[in-house]
Every structure is written in structure tokens, then in C-alpha cells.
Amino acid sequence: MTHAFVEQIMGTVEVRNPGEPEFHQAVREVAESVAGVIDQRPELARLRVFERLVEPERQILFRVPWTDDAGQVQVNRGFRVEFNSALGPYKGGLRFHPSVYLGIVKFLGFEQIFKNALTTTPIGGSKGGSDFDPKGKSNMEVMRFCQSFMSELFRHIGPDTDVPAGDIGVGTREIGYLFGQYKKLSNTFTGVLTGKGLDWGGSHIRTEATGYGLVYIVTRALADRGTDWAGKRVVISGSGNVAIYATQKAQQLGAMVVTLSDSDGYIVDEDGIDLDTVRQIKEVRRGRIREYVDARPGATYIEDGDSIWSVPCDVALPSATQNELDDVAARTLIANGCIAVGEGANMPSTPDAVDLFIDACVSFIPGKAANAGGVATSALEMSQNSLRFQWTFDDVDRRLQGIMNAVYDQCTAAADAYGAPGDLAAGANIAGFLKVANAMIDQGVV
Ligand code: NDP
């Protein structure tokens, strides 16, 4: 019965969305978790709630022409998938990376629905981006691209409609250029984007939120095992926004972070990652992680991103990109004694890897719970923009910790209630799904 539901859903999704394996993977994972719930609640099947959920409410594709510094015209693609607005205005990041195509945006937008539901804040789910690569581009090129991108996007978003934020390749610089163009075109200064600069509508902690939130929720998992961060060896992948602030918070709590990476390779520093050096390279010079060993000769650089998971650790925080941690890596982590995995990135572990972690009783926290601190703090930024007021660093940090605790509690409670105790992947999917599904039923067939 359960299996038939999943196969029937996947049959339709695969035919309607050909060539989008990441989206299929994300839908299957949720369908498998909620099939038993749908068996128990016949109105969910009768009202075809899941069938409606997998179909975005709106998909926007557009041309983004811009001129490079040599005067050549370049053409990229822009995407915004407004997936579900049952709980509030669409909310989700923009990703600028050459790998972006409609299937990536749909997988991220679909995940975002459930993640946003778990935050306890009133926001729907969406995602967007472009196949534009900001790496190696001048500030003026990035600005011209962002202005062209927003020249189309502005007609589809708004503070009560759809509120984008950053993701891979979109940081404060890009949000600034996007916001400036939105303001010019709309002649309004509103909270239409989050991740804004602190002096022009941004929130304290938004920059740190995803990494800090990740560490806060893993703290709960460690506490359930009767331990904490003190003295733990931590392997983190990526060296962007999420990885940097996860490193900072883990170190503040007494952990030893020994790796960081980018798409070329990874560094190992047995003395613990020196975050000032990393921030100088990544945030100031916009350089590559290999440059770390120039400043820290005791560290090593390995030009093979895949083997980062063979570095022994107690806790692993994959924080780069989707499907970066497969079954081979999961077996290695388990064999090396890893006790907890928190997903900073979206869907970084393959389905086989997740199954292995859960079978081995590794505390596994899926991305839609573990990295929810970023969007939750974006929702707090929206609240502050509506109030036209800025809360203090400590205020926002306290709220973020409260939200991450609530996310963890909802996931564990749903896992317990639906016969999967300890399986937070299932718990996150079920808790997020039920909240959205109930709202969709209340609001009728729209
Ligand atoms: P950044 O652009 O700041 O950093 C991304 C990091 O991941 C870089 O080190 C980058 O290396 C690496 N990376 C990207 N693509 C690949 C790839 N194909 N293979 C190997 N490494 C890669 O992005 P964020 O830190 O913001 O995002 C990281 C992850 O966290 C993403 O999955 C994102 O969706 C997720 N996330 C981010 C949130 C946020 O608030 N920023 C919120 C929730 C989730 P390189 O420079 O070589 O590309």
C-alpha cells in the first residue's frame, strides 16, 4: 500500500519533470517518509494533498543578458520557483552557480517548503537562481548581472508575496546589488530581500545564522547522547557562509574543527582551523582554500574533495553542496567512530548514506532541520522590517536558539509518534508535511 503510493507519485513526477534527478530524489525521500501518514489520514489522499504539493504553484524562467568588462554581451538564465504559499509568503534563497538548472531550483524549492514549516515562522517555500558564475567576475560585472536579473524578477516578488535571500554564490554583495535595483524599479524601500546589510534593513546574526543554527541543533543531538562539543573532532566541508560560521560556533563551544574545503580540494589542520586566515582568504580576497597552507605551513592541502570524509572525526557537518557524501563516505565515517552528522548543506548525503547513518545509530540531522536557522533568521529579518526596528545581536541569537530547539523537538516528536524513533530524517519530513498539509486543507483546493 505504502510502496504503491510512492511509486504512483514518482511515476507522475518523473514523467512531468523529465531530466531532473535531484528533484526526483527530494520528492521520493519525502514521499517515503509520509506514505504511512497518508495511509492513516484518508482525507490527505482524497484531497490529493501530496499530488498538489509536488507541483509548484508558479515557475518563472527568464533571460538575463548583461555586458562583461570587455564589452561583450553575455546571456544567462534566471529561475524562480514559487512552490507553496500555504503558510505565508514564498521564501527561499537565490543560488548563482554554473550547475543551476530548473531541476536544482525545484529540488531546493521543494525542500524549502518543509524546512520553512519546521521553523515555526509564517513563510511559504520557494527558490531561485541562475547559471551565472560569480567566481572570477569583477564587482562591476556582478553588479550588472544582478541588475539585469532583478529587472525581470522584481515584477514577481514583494514583501508580502515572495522574499528571496542568498544561497551558494549570493552573499551580502549580491543582495546589495539586487536590493538597489529593486528599490529603483519599485520606488519602495521594503523588506523584499533578506540578508541585507546591517545598516540598511538587515538583521543581526543573519550572516552567522545557518552555521550557528547547525551547531545549536547538533548540540541537542549530542546532549541526547549524554555528551557535548568539548574536545570533539569535527570535519566540515565547504568554506562558504555556512561552513565558516559553523566552524566559529563549534570552536566557541570547545570543538576542534580540522577540515574545510572548496570544489578543488580540502585542507587539514591538526591544530584546528584558524578562522581568521580562512575569512581573510574567502571573505576579503575571495580566494581558494588551498591558499590556507601558505599562512599555516603545518596544515596540508589535498586536491581531491571526495576523500574529506576519510579524515577521522566525531562529528561531520557537510556544508558544501548536494550529494557530496555518498555511501562509501558514510561507511568510512561510521568505521572511524563518527557519532553525529548534521547537514549544513541541502541534501548533501545520498539516500544510501542516510540509511547507513540511521542503521548505525549515528545521530543524523537532515538539512531541512539542521540548516533551517538561516531561513528562520530571514523570517526574523522580515519581522524586524515590518516593525521598522532592529533587535540586538543577543535578542536574535536567543530567538535563533529557541527556533532550533523547536525544530529539533518537532522532528523527534513526529519520529516517535509515527513509529520511527530516532529517525530525524523521517521526523522532519512528517512534521513539516503535516503542518503544510493541514493548512492546504483549511484553504481549499487552490
Ligand atoms: P557559499 O557560496 O558561501 O559557499 C559554498 C561552498 O561550497 C564553497 O566552499 C564552494 O566551493 C562549495 N561548493 C559549492 N558547490 C560545490 C560543488 N559542486 N562541489 C564542491 N564544493 C562546492 O554557499 P553557502 O555556504 O551559503 O551554502 C552552502 C550550502 O548550504 C548549500 O547547499 C546551500 O544551499 C546551503 N544552505 C545555505 C544557507 C545560507 O543561509 N547561506 C541556508 C541553508 C542552506 P567553491 O568556491 O569551489 O564553489
Q: What does this 3D model show about the protein?
A:
It is a single chain. It is globular, with a radius of gyration of 21 Å. It has helices at residues 2-16, 21-40, 42-46, 49-53, 102-118, 139-153, 172-186, 209-224, 241-252, 275-284, 292-295, 327-335, 351-359, 367-370, 372-387, 393-417, 424-442, and strands at residues 58-67, 73-84, 90-96, 125-130, 162-165, 233-236, 256-262, 265-268, 300-302, 315-317, 340-342, 363-365. It starts with a helix and ends with a helix. The model has no long low-confidence stretch (mean pLDDT 97). The chain is an alpha/beta fold. The strands form two sheets. The protein has a seven-stranded mixed β-sheet with strand order 9-8-7-6-10-11-12, with helices on both faces. Strands 1-2-4-3-5 form a five-stranded mixed β-sheet, with helices on both faces. Strand 11 (340-342), helix 13 and strand 12 (363-365) form a beta-alpha-beta unit. It has 17 helices and twelve strands. Helix 8 (209-224) packs across helix 15 (372-387). The protein binds NADPH dihydro-nicotinamide-adenine-dinucleotide phosphate. NADPH dihydro-nicotinamide-adenine-dinucleotide phosphate (NDP) binds next to helix 9.
Secondary-structure element series: HHHHEEEHEHEHHEHEEHHEEHEHEHHHH
Catalogue the unreliable spans: none
Which molecules other than protein and nucleic acid are bound?
Answer: NADPH dihydro-nicotinamide-adenine-dinucleotide phosphate
Major beta sheet summary: 7 strands, mixed
Rounded average pLDDT: 97
Structural class by sheet pairing and helices: alpha/beta
Percent of residues in helices comes to 40-55%
